[in-house]
Amino acid sequence: MNRKLFISLLILSFITLYANVLISNFTAKSQDGNVVIKWQAISESNLDHYIIARKTVNGSFIDLAVVELRSDKNYEYIDKTAYKSMDAVYIYQLRAAYKDGSKDEILYEASVFHNVSSVPKKTWGSIKELFR
Questions:
Q1: Domains of the chain by start residue, with CATH
Q2: With a threshold of 0.70, does the pTM exceed it?
Q3: Which residue of 25, 107, 116, 121 lies most exposed, with the fewest beta carbons within 10 A?
């Protein structure tokens, strides 16, 4: 076995031993007035579910959703609640909740400049006016 292959296998074994959850291709983007979050799991050892949270730059994280495990390990969450009267930067967090009850683990954070089109902005503004 060549040296590079051996080292690669050794690193992969180390990661697998010490990481309960491995994620790849984590993305969050503004799309059609919503924020779409996607990820793919490589390993989900001892995982019960995922938690999606969101905050503004100066705010605190609020939990948005619990995402149950899928057999194909491909996930998507669409945040339809990210409406603002102005364009905003949001930070999304993906956390892992484990079956053994151990503390939630932060897996990824991603920031998104959420650009809401003018039509939803006007609609949202009209709805807010009804309740003033």
A1: 22-130 (2.60.40.10)
A2: yes
A3: 25
